Amino acid sequence: MIKGFSKFSQEQKVDTLAAQFNLPVSFKETLRSHHHRELQGLYNQFAENTISNFYLPYNVAPGFVINKKEYAIPMVVEESSVVAAASKAAKFWSAHGGFSTKVLSVTKSGQLFFTTEWSFEELSALMPDITSALRCSVGEITHNMEKRGGGITGFKLTSESLVDEQTYCLMVSFETADSMGANFINTCLEKMGDALVTFLIQKNDNRHIEINMAILSNYTPECLVQCALSCPIEDLQAYSGVYSPQDFALRFKKAVSLAKHNPSRAVTHNKGIMNGIDAVVLATGNDFRAIEAGVHAYASRAGAYASLTDIVLENDTFTYTLKLPLALGTVGGLTSLHPMAKLSLLLLDEPSASELMQIVAAAGMANNFSAVAALVTSGIQKGHMKMHLSNILAALNADPMECQKAKKYFSERDVSHSAVKLYLDAERLKNKRHEY
Ligand code: MEV
């Protein structure tokens, strides 16, 4: 067992791992070749036990028109065809009214769990005094947030009687302006926990009170954004393939209904949304794990996991909407530290957190629209395989001429790693023979 690893220098960590797990020389070489020449010191500060960097592609989907403003959206994603799908939808919808987005609410919440001999009724009667004591305990911290337009917006006491009769949750609502606010909320909650103990002990020091935990909730159903796409059904010709635009719209509607009622399909449907969402969340230095957790909980709010999108076909018009919670920030945390996150925000014209919520929602909707459109027409493999072919060719070190010929050859054939390798080996052999 390796002991004291976190105290080692970066070089010692690598040497220790190589020795302990009998790793080849290439282990160290690959780590070293992924170091950043100038900024490694900065990257080392983001987490613990950093020994190198893990690169993901930094891509851009241009041509988004969101509420009449044009954006080129940065997307960090490794899955082939996600950026192509987003760009294709962006291009189509920019000519059909663009993405109409709206922030519906910006409230986040935190939870203070505690166990006490006080009854729910007694605590409820004391709530006005408790909340003013708690507000007072965090006055200094909330003062700055209030100046930026945020602060504490409410308190709600609930009983956790399913756990035990003496355990409660004080749910505190916050607005955090342009920051994601995790640190602000957690700091407030911990201080309020101490204040709650002090308050109740001052009231009656014979009764037991203990804090179980104080932490923000990543369930943010009141930090909601909505995105809508709408056009005459006949304009959908560009996507309808062998179908008429009307049939395409009906097939699309059925796909959305299936994702509403079949949870297994809903998960995949929503994954298509998250392809776009996570890519922008990552590119802007936001916490994609928090977003994922919150979005999927929201998708289950009615008791069964369901699609996040809705569709209406009425008066010859196709209207497609997405609603989801996105607790994002554009100041603080990694957004202000990571050079690429800063660059993304620059590319997006330094958006507020609310504007970023709308951009991210549009990216999710673009990806989902392209995915569902492909699924109900040609299927997704056609587009996927084109990108997959490029990846396989790159892995097999194909030169530009080989790539061009392979793409032509595979335009009518099934793509697989073995088929491409077989084709390339044969081509290379043929060319070698010609050289002699
Ligand atoms: C693949 O990354 C995403 C899709 O599976 C989404 C969907 O099925 O709607 C194509």
Automatic annotation (TrEMBL):
It comes from the Bacteria. InterPro entries: HMG_CoA_Rdtase, HMG_CoA_Rdtase_cat_sf, HMG_CoA_Rdtase_NAD(P)-bd_sf, HMG_CoA_Rdtase_sub-bd_dom_sf. It holds the Pfam family HMG-CoA_red. Keywords: Oxidoreductase. The keyword Signal does not apply. One of its GO terms (biological process) is coenzyme A metabolic process. This is 3-hydroxy-3-methylglutaryl-coenzyme A reductase. It comes from Saccharicrinis carchari.
